[in-house]
DNA sequence: ATAACATTTGCACATATGTGCAAATGTAAT
DNA sequence: ATTACATTTGCACATATGTGCAAATGTTAT
């Protein structure tokens, strides 16, 4: 007589409980994990990464930024908003122009966060 | 008499050509930029980031990985494929089980790449 | 007030993508 | 050969998201 398939897919069972517990410790702080993911995600899009890289040496206005990354002002402005919200870039207004630059503090914080997790 | 609007949006004109050229230099190597973005994107998704963080201390089989990141085997396997393709993780087969671990070489390469761009 | 122009934003659309079910694959044991 | 089980994969679906046009906003100058 055939036995019923009880667990068609490994779903509930754990093979090495210790290792699993150890792994879970690494990702226990959900907020921090999500924050890290958010930063990675922002840098994980070519246009946004180009923007950030372009700003490493000097501040640029939106217009020049669009030229540098070979896109258009609207698209760049949309992406700048996301980078601004995450504090990866900051801005300075001068008349009609707006100059964006890297928010060193937050970028460095982000890098620190990465290192913490990879260097222990 | 009203003048015609010639440039309703700053599109073609460049304000500071020097700075733009300098910025373009930073992103001249398109392949490298895309490769960096690809790595960031992979780490920019909570499930995948959790997987990578879980693997920092020790290798885990797919089943335990699913338990650790509180997901299911199918989803984790899908994401592992992406991480595998990018060489962020490697694997070792043992009977029916497959143990995944961080591909230190490539992770370190990735971190180096980030540092290069941010520390000059 | 009107014009010019840099930037932002609302909207819509096409595309990418994370997810999980169900089936397939692969492996070990009986 | 058959059973059991870990993993992978094909598929479909819901959702997220990058993009650019057109309009709105804000600022300077005439």
Q: What does this molecule look like?
A:
Two copies of one chain form a homodimer. Chain A has a single domain, classed as Orthogonal Bundle (Arc Repressor Mutant, subunit A). In chain A, 57% of the residues lie in helices and 12% in strands. Chain A is built from six helices and three strands, in the order H-H-H-E-H-H-E-E-H. Chain A has a three-stranded antiparallel β-sheet with strand order 1-3-2. In chain A, a hairpin with a 2-residue loop joins strand 2 and strand 3. The N terminus of chain A is likely disordered. At the A-B interface, helix 1, helix 2, helix 3, strand 1 and helix 4 of A face helix 1, helix 2, helix 3, strand 1 and helix 4 of B. The structure holds a DNA duplex (30 and 30 nucleotides).
Could you write a compact summary of the structure shown?
Two copies of one chain form a homodimer. By secondary structure, chain A is mostly helical.
Query: What is the assigned CATH homologous superfamily of chain A?
Result: Winged helix-like DNA-binding domain superfamily/Winged helix DNA-binding domain
The residue-averaged pLDDT of chain A reads 89
Main sheet of chain A? 3 strands, antiparallel
Oligomer: homodimer
Strands of the largest sheet of chain A, in order across it?
A: 1-3-2
Summing up helix and strand content along with how strands pair, one would put the structural category of chain A as mainly alpha
The total count of strands of chain A amounts to: 3
- Report the uncertain regions of chain A: 1-6
Largest interface: A-B, 56 and 56 residues
Q: What count of helical segments of chain A does DSSP give? A: 6
> What portion of residues of chain A is helical?
55-70%
- Look at the structure and give the CATH class of chain A: Mainly Alpha
Any guess at the CATH architecture of chain A?
Orthogonal Bundle
Percentage of residues in strands of chain A: 5-15%
Radius of gyration of chain A: 22 Å
Total of domains of chain A: 1
């Amino acid at each position: 007589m055939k036995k019923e398939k009880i667990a068609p897919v490994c779903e509930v069972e754990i093979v090495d409980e210790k290792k699993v517990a150890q792994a879970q410790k690494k990702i226990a702080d959900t907020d921090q994990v999500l924050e890290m993911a958010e930063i990675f995600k922002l840098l994980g899009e070519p246009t946004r990464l180009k923007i950030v890289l372009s700003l490493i040496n000097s501040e640029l206005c939106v217009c020049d930024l669009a030229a540098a990354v070979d896109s258009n002002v609207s698209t760049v402005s949309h992406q700048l908003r996301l980078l601004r919200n995450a504090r990866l870039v900051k801005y300075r207004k001068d008349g009609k122009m707006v100059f964006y630059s890297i928010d060193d503090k937050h970028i460095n914080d982000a890098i620190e966060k990465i290192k913490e997790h990879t260097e222990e």
